[in-house]
Batch of 4 targets.
Target 1
Amino acid sequence: MVLSSSVGSFPGDSARAYGEWVRASLDTLSLPAVPELPGRGAIASMTGRALAMVVELGADLQPAGWRLTDAAGVDQRRARSLLAQDLDTLEELGQEYAGPLKVQVAGPWTLAATVERPRGDKLLADHGARRELAQALAEGVAAHVADVRRRVAGVSRLVVQVDEPALPAVMGGRVPTASGFGKHRSVDKPEASEALEWVLGAIAGAGAEPWVHSCAPGAPLALLRGAGARGLSVDLALVDAAGQDVLAETLEAGDAVALGVVPSTEPDDPPGDAAVTQRVERWLDMVGLEPGPSLVVTPACGLSGASPGWARRALELSAAAARSLS
């Protein structure tokens, strides 16, 4: 059976909205994704949520963004409290749920490109700091996996999606320095792979399935596979010819491919169920494969920038296309 899922983020800025998206995901998708609502502020952003999971490193929110500190600051404590509240909501609404579930976390390289060192500038500038962050993230995500499993006992398959939108820029030397006049040096493939291996390996060691998502052009899909990703999640429109081959190889190997084919914001001419299904069918024809249980239909990227109406419609379109393909 072809599955349907979301990338994870949704519109909204309240606890009520969070609960509504939990219900919508559980009711609509065959692989529900635990919602993220970055509209609630920095403590609910991709970076803030990941720092809430990291227990070995302190952080606080500065005018320029998140920065590591000697001890957890008030904003990191608020981020942890919000994460716990969200998991309480998931536990309450998921009491009767039985099936697969997906959670998301920012990856080590996206964090290194967005979090600052205590002295300023991004962690990306400090080899030791970015290594320490990746290892702390691996430990924190493993604990998060155990917490989710404890709270939602009916989960039969737990997927952890590691979000790496900044990875192509990190490897390409395109991340700006604090001054804005220069760029951080590029990270080579072996080091990029090593940090990912720590995080993906910790997820697998905790009994979950590690995927990597990137809706940025030039995502190094072969490197992600080599680092231990058991699933790849992409915006299909941004995948080049080499990436198409990697996606096909991934499906042939029995690992997951999540194809982002539903617009993440409402277009002028919204597609119907048949158009979304046909887009996936054309891609399968191109690579010479049949639909199967390793294929997942999703929106192209997160839905936090969409209207609530379109976000709900995007879930419905993904689910309808998955059923048709099945």
Target 2
Amino acid sequence: MASATGIGSMPGTDFVESLRIVLGEVGDLPYVPELPARGVHAGMIGRTLAVLVGLDADLQPDGWRIGVGEGADLRRARSLLAQDLDVAEELAGTHAGQLKLQVTGPLTLAATVERPRGDKMLADHGARREIAESLAEGVRTHIADAQRRFAHAELVVQVDEPAIAAVLGGGIPTASGFSRHRSVRPPEADELLRLVVDAIRDAGARPVVHSCAPDVPVALLAGAGFAAISFDLALARPDDVWAETFEQGVDLWCGLVPPTDAQDVGARELAARVTAFFGHFGFDSEAYADRLVVSPTCGLSGASPAWGRTALVTSALVAGRLEG
């Protein structure tokens, strides 16, 4: 039958409580949550910078900057990640089954983090390659640490790429704001993604990619070697590329539940959207139920604490309706 999970972030600042909610509501595919409300060091970028190998960062007025030495915020990010993993090991160290970690992908990272002299790493081919290689090596170490902590778990690493469509389409603004960075061509994007995907697979984990943006480059992501694509179902056009990708063995994880407080969100109606999407391509529930994961459309950092739990509960209810 289908499973349920969350994207990564949770509301509030209490990591123990957030992890307990995750384990209680989506126990078949739990994840180590991120709590951005604790500060920049706890958000998706700070969390990932804490994983990099060979590249230090510091928080500048314009955001994170690589190559200017290890700043206090990066030290805090590394310390907080280690503390959270200690807690997760205590609460879920005996978990048997899938367990998900999240990192920011190389394209979104390059579009967000600045070079030593300013402007995004996206602006320079060598810098893009450098941060992807650092991320790949860091992910290997991160997985090895997680395997030691969660010896019975099957690790899944979700690579978050919310900016991938903008990177490919030349939509990332320069530092001045008056122009846009040149688009990264698909062959280079494939190369950068493959560095991370191969590192995840070589380390013994399953690579999944998430993007809640419209125009997800499905063929590119499938070609880079991801085992599953997590996406916002409401933004996905029913193009044949989805069916072709699914038939090639890439699982489709459907984002369905609103990430912020909403009303009239019924599990039956959400399940019907999934049925309609796959039915458009001629797939019945027996074809996809065991390969399907249901989630909120995006992270839950902007939700109220009550909705953070409700979104996961609803995801699990939808998954339960989609049995093969």
Target 3
Amino acid sequence: MSKGTLFDKVWDLHTVGTLPSGQTQLFIGLHLVHEVTSPQAFAMLRERNLPVMYPQRTVATVDHIVPTENQARPFADPLAESMMQALEQNCQDFGIRFYNIGSGHQGIVHVIAPEQGLTQPGMTIACGDSHTSTHGAFGAIAFGIGTSQVRDVLASQTLALGKLKVRRLEVNGPLPQGVYAKDVILHIIRTLGVKGGVGYAYEFAGTTLDTMSMEGRMTICNMAIEGGARCGYVNPDQTTYDYLQGREFAPQGEAWDKAVAWWNTLRSDADAVYDDVVVFNAADIAPTVTWGITPGQGIGVDEALPTLDSFAEGERALAEEAFAYMDLQPGQPLQGTPIDVCFIGSCTNGRISDLREAAKVVKGHTVAEGIKAFVVPGSEQVKQQAEAEGLDEIFTAAGLEWREAGCSMCLAMNPDKLQGRQISASSSNRNFKGRQGSASGRTLLMSPAMVAAAALSGKVVDVRDYLRG
């Protein structure tokens, strides 16, 4: 069993008691809600005539169903408008802070909480969204939960959870040119598999993480769930504190100094015991692209697709299914694969640093003929900052569409969808069948810079060729 890790410390600090099932009743410090998984939970409270126990600990925004072109109300999609109205009413009735469209703070839930300073080290955080693990970048323990658990947190501010094992994932060395946080996490998932983290919390560490920006760390923790881990985190350090200081909900003045002193005690001890340790060398990581139907089916952009005999017997059927679905052949190069749509955005890669890197690639170039390419900032604040820096002008001059904040084509619960058998170069987090809005659509996951390069070429290319030039 792990001992002395940040996970153990935060878990113990938030333990209310042990339930008859053997699970821990865990206090949740911050609850984030959006329009998709909360309506039923609020309805359950109403059925039982229950209040929200600590409304000040719940924060809401709207992101999944938000159109990124025409945001006029009512929305064209009646279901989206219904969800929107339900969230507005529920927040009003239960006294919950709501960042609505036009507030200046609306955006993807995992983008706005950090930028507001709501996400802080040592917290337990829950949200009815798989990618809540994003917030672990700050040294928090953050869980994606289902609708019935959303109800439980609203009603009791606690969750019933079994304690996880802890695996330390060390990545050491400087990242090569053209390799980003997205490539790091895709490489880890490719190596350990999409089920490798089942039953674990992932502690991301090593010199690569130590020198990485907060936004890069958020990208890595965001996809911990895609590797099967229940949550992922990075120990807080000066990079964390520099990001948080001065943000609206961060401690101020003397309280800030006290908070930092306490946050430093939460870091995993030098002699912490882990259930497992895996070490990676950053020099081994190339720009990485998924070729299949899980985030674990990825390769370096300069590699050929794997042959069927390279898979373990238990994985071969899934590989065959992926090759057939994607219209790809074992052993062929992935580089040069034609692309139809290029999407830059999502809770994984819709932050300002992501947009800056993509803009560097497209500046002075033009999107290839016939390619639909668009950029969706992760929040209204990101959009405002990008426009202040002129990034929107770089994108539009190159032929990419500049949109409003939202989840967009990541889950496609809005008008941004693939059509038919279109193939997408996407900076999002999942490449499941039908994930981007078409039952037969195909998704290749990659970094924002790689998506930008694909938009210019109309096919999968190595972004390093653009960066060298």
Target 4
Amino acid sequence: METNRTLGRSGIEVSALGFGCWAIGGEWSDLGGQPLGWGKVDDDESVRAIHRALDLGVTFFDTADVYGTGHSERVLGRALGKRRADVVVATKWGNLFDEDTRVLNGQDASEQYVREALTASLTRLGTDYVDLYQFHLSDAHPSHGARLREICEEFVREGLIRAYAWSTDDPARAAVFAEGEHCAAVQHALNVMQDAPEMLALCEESGLASINRSPLAMGLLAGKRQGPQDAGDIRSKPPTWMQGFNNEGADSDWLNRVDALKDILTSNGRTLAQGALAWIWARSPRTVPIPGFRSVEQAEQNAGAIEKGPLTADQLTEINQILER
């Protein structure tokens, strides 16, 4: 497998595997106390994990201003330091939050807010440009998307960003951004349990990269079996949009289906997580999965998937037969 991929039609080269920086933001919540992070984190360990990822050839890091209410961006900026020019940084905007109380307190899809949000992200990241700027409100009205697309084009002309994308699971919304010259990607959910054929078709037709969040299904495709004990972990109190979980933790039906795939996913000496990433690479040459991480060990395991490469076409067919799709 080629270890690098091009970020859509931007010409920006990234590693075939990116790292998602949601988890390293630490604990945060909504106004009702719903946890939105992945529990407590050790910032020094997060920095060590990012450095290890860089050493292993990972050059694409995806965060958002709201992750940890700004904390993820600050940790990523600290970790990259003088190596900033060697990597591709993606972040997102659209959510409102209070850094002091670590609370998500609203949304803003207005044209007035986007420049304010970008300026704040640049400061937290310690950089003067963002490689890929992504609209984070997945269900915003398409008319908002059209206006924000034009503002992103202005940012490209000003040198503040290199390219942009919409983080959404709706191909129709993604297509609105795709009309812009410097739209390079769409970020959407994709994993072996949650295929997205329409979105992958749009990426192929429009020349976009497919950036894949939840590639390990919130840990279910990494062998996680027990519900987390940490009350600050979103999986301890799963919101309704989180597939594969219920009030007791991981959904038994999901776990049974994962078990049925285990022999295929762990072929060629792969871990279960590496097999899940291999499925994504086999699904489309445009895919760039962004698994999360909180430790050097997780960084090493995720990066280890690269040398194993994608699953075969026959293995994809076998998985579809097992999942009856």
